[in-house]
Specification:
The complex is a heterodimer of chains A (208) and B (315).
Chain A lengths: L1 H4 L3 H29 L7 H29 L9 H23 L4 H10 L1 H13 L1 H4 L3 H7 L1 H8 L1 H16 L5 H28 L1
Chain B lengths: L16 H22 L19 E2 L11 H6 L12 H5 L9 E6 L5 E4 H5 L5 E8 L4 E11 H7 L8 E6 L19 E5 H4 L5 E6 L2 E2 L9 E3 L12 E7 L6 H5 L23 E4 L6 E2 L7 H4 L13
Parallel strand pairs in B: 1-4, 2-11, 5-12
Antiparallel strand pairs in B: 2-3, 4-5, 5-8, 6-7, 6-11, 8-9, 8-10, 12-13
Classes of the chains: A mainly alpha (208), B alpha+beta (315).
The structure holds protoporphyrin IX containing FE (HEM).
Amino acid sequence: MADSEMPARGPRIALLLKLLTGIACAAPLAWLYWAWQAGELGFHPAEAIVHFLGRFGLGLLLLTLILGTLAHVLRAPKLLILHPLLGIAAFVYLTLHALSWAGLDMVWEWEFIAMEMVDLRYLQVGLVSLVLLIPLPLTSGRGLSHHWGSTLWHWLHRLGYVAVAAGLLHLWIITRADYALPVIYMVGFAAVIALRLLTPLWHTVRAR
Amino acid sequence: MRAFCYPKPRSSEITPRHLFERRREFLRQSASGLALAAAPALWSASAWSWTGRLGDADPTEFTTEGDKTPKEAIKTYNNFFEFGTGKDDPHKNAHKLQTDPWSLEISGEVEKSGTFGLEDVLKHHSFEERIYRLRCVEAWSMVIPWVGFPLADLLKRHEPTSRAKYAMFETLHDPEQMPAQRRDILDWPYREGLRMDEAMHPLTILAVGLYGDVLPNQNGAPIRLVVPWKYGYKSIKSIVRIHLQEKRPVSTWEAERPNEYGFYAIVDPEVRHPRWHQATERRIGEDGRRRTEKFNGYGEHVAHLYEGMDLSEYR
Ligand code: HEM
């Protein structure tokens, strides 16, 4: 009885961390909504919203990959408690990113939406990226990874890498003159890939 | 916090004419006051004696019906990469630009070349109000009441030679005043060019004012080009040099990405651009989208310049 009244510290810290991360993920979205309603986004709010959500969404997606990679490299699976949350937040931002383009910038004019999707490569790449992301939040629960067997689950979640690569290409195509942002994101992505590829090697070398 | 609130002001909320007129009076008075104060010092560098004439500019046959874009929008939503690539960067950073004194060099294939103080250039010209549509290659547009004069008038005064086939324009290059020039995001200084017949066309103006007042720095003060049937990047800002030449110049964006930003850059909903769809545009301050017109709606005036040219090839 005493045990259940006095839960171990671990789960409480985990809960707190999840809560803080959730708030941190939701805060920019809340700010954006407030700024939009308050007229703080300048004279072309649709553009400001699309850009903001794209940047944050891709940033969150990269953070998700970085967290997963750190957990793997440091052999610290506890880090993964924040993984589903970050991934879902990224997905929400990027879905809103695409919807805000269609709704606010293209004002739900299906003729214009179709025309742009057909003619512009960067939009097609963005769509591919977003579609690849759909299975991930649907299968993000830890229960599922056990249920499905981790091989299938891991295979599925490699889609995240492809989605980020496509997202980076999408960003690269539409960048005008100043490549600072895509370069920062690409360095992050390259670091994740390098760590993923190098860790197995490192572990085998150490095992000898 | 900005004073402005979404949704945007209607045209009735644009600062009423009589307020501008009072402002004009004030400017005139202060300009003459300045001149008086300066006279004993024999200080002739007061470029601003011409600003008093800005509010007197009359509209011409070349004007646009419909609502003008609010001045606040024209001042805060800009592409001027010398001050940063964000739309609000120019408005935040352009105060570092020193526009007085300013000099303009006219060089190359002209009989009368030289470097002139802005006031010496402007004293030859009476100002007109030109309300023009501006269409950016990024698929947004505005309606802007410029004050200026035809570029042709200035060029004629310097007597182009028979070898003058193109006009090349250059923006100021000074990273102290234009902070984003510290990074090589573009090949500074910004350059643009026009074919001579385009440069001499009556629609092509040099603008020195906006809404009856001096140009805000972020809009290209103190003197800029406006070519309303071409994408905005052709309308080069804060000009320090005009050079007439026989060879076609290469403009800055063209050098950066030749497959995207053509030299002719004529607004054309049919000609594809890989980044932005050119069929429609967002008129800044409006909620919906408009269909883009060929030559930005100035076809009756300029289409003949391009007869026999395939504009999808000569972008
Ligand atoms: C159907 C899906 C998508 C659509 C319609 C879409 C649309 C857009 C549009 C219209 C822009 C602005 C382009 C411009 O500046 O002219 C943009 C920028 C951007 N998009 Fe997307 N996008 C989609 C999916 C994605 C995805 C999945 C990601 C990330 C993985 C992403 C990341 C970005 C980023 C980082 C930017 C740059 C924002 C900035 O410059 O601040 N987009 N997108």
